[in-house]
Amino acid sequence: MKSNLYSSQQAREMDRIAIDRYGYSGLLLMKTAGERAFANIMACFSGVEPMVVLCGSGNNGGDGYVVAKCAQAIGLEVVVVQASEPKTRDAIQVCHEFVDRGGSIITSDTNDIEVLQSAGLIIDGLFGTGLNRAPSGFYADLIRVANQASCLADCPVVALDIPSGLDSDTGFAFDPCIKAAMTVTFIGKKFGLFTGQGKNCSGRIKFEDLNLPGDIQKSVKPIARIIPRPELKKRVPDSHKGDYGNIIIAGGDNGMLGAALLAGRAALRCGSGRVTVLSTERHLDMPALHCPELMSQCIENETGFARLCEHSDVVVVGPGMGLSDWSKQIFDCLIELQKPMVIDADGLVLLADAFGKRDAGKHDHWVLTPHPGEAATLLGCSTADVQKDRIGAVKAIGEQFGGVCVLKGAGTLIADLSAAVGVCDRGNPGMASAGTGDVLAGIIGSLIGQNLDSGNLDLGKAAQAGVWLHATCADKIAGKIGMASLLAGDIIDALPETLSSMH
């Protein structure tokens, strides 16, 4: 259940179940949340003061008052900045408890937020999960000054439940939005913390279930799940290369052969039995000069092309394909094959064009791997629209085109209409480099090919396993050489060690 991710409405439903069905009081939940948040804060930032707690009018502000009271109880220097007076019964009570014990509060009437500039630690309790618009007024001022203090004065910010200004349902950050060093989230993990701009704003994520019965989470179906470490197929002694997939990598138009080579090398390193680069006549035999294990073919050799298609198991379409007449010709030929397929890069642009010109029909035999710009092309919207609602976009692509969709980016999403959306909590900004997407396409194609003989091909599981492997390899490399120097080929080179550790 710790891998389950929930929407704001689902989080409120779990609150309601805890209160109505199990007899917990809202006040007890608030105090437990604040106390557990304070324990996490002290574990990471022990002795850092003065502490400034930003409190809004709702229950998220109530959590903040509890944190302030805990700090006060052990003698830390703490002050509350009240964006507006508490409005819920429980928040009013914990606010009074803090004040009655001598707690110091700065109100919005004074508009005195200079205290933030001298803070050693800032606690964000301004908004909870219900925010669906940009913060404004005094709230916005507090967020901007808190972020400035965090950036210029090296003052950590800890968000309670979710950073204020972040849409917990989508991972979209309104302007302004808290940039937290750590977020302590309660009862159920919020989806928006794990994808898109939520990854920028959340920092380290600490989860507290408040010791509630596990049945509460079980009673609410999550909107997404963090993808687990995959279980990969073990090789048997009498196997041969045909057991591990015959893969076509179609792409590498003139000037872009490198993309197809990366995908091909990735497929080989991931365990494919045989990989052929299907490219232009000019590139025939060139792949073997870079990687002797790669074979090559061109569409101009009609006999060889037909034989290759007949004996292939999986087709990866798009790495370095371009949008030339040759590209369109090879795409039109391959898209008619009723074989498992991974469509990436320019292949996605051509797919969108094919759907626009004719009733191409959606299929269940392909995995689409767009980045946000390519997702926008598939959906006929802007990249900004995709990033505002990544889970909505990845589902829409799956519904419109069929199969499995992998929406790349921070917190990559995998939509398989037969299961909950998968979310990758691995990876790093070093992956924002040319060719990493081609490597992912090759890895997913390889995993599909290696599981064809199981009789129960699951493209969704292959896509999730590929995303997990890709991101895990990138993290291994970044840990050794840093993020800025990470190249796509480095991810391929990390595959043997990563795969070996999984068997």
Written account of the structure:
With 503 residues, the protein is an alpha/beta fold. The strands form 2 sheets. The protein has a 12-stranded mixed β-sheet, sandwiched between helices. Strands 4-3-2-5-6-7-9 form a 7-stranded parallel β-sheet, with helices on both faces. The protein has helices at 8-20, 26-45, 59-73, 89-100, 137-152, 198-202, 214-218, 257-269, 286-290, 302-311, 325-335, 346-357, 372-379, 383-388, 390-401, 436-450, 459-481, 488-500, and strands spanning 4-6, 51-55, 78-82, 105-107, 121-125, 157-160, 182-186, 189-190, 204-208, 224-226, 246-250, 274-279, 295-298, 314-317, 341-343, 366-368, 404-407, 413-416, 421-423. The chain is built from 18 helices and 19 strands.
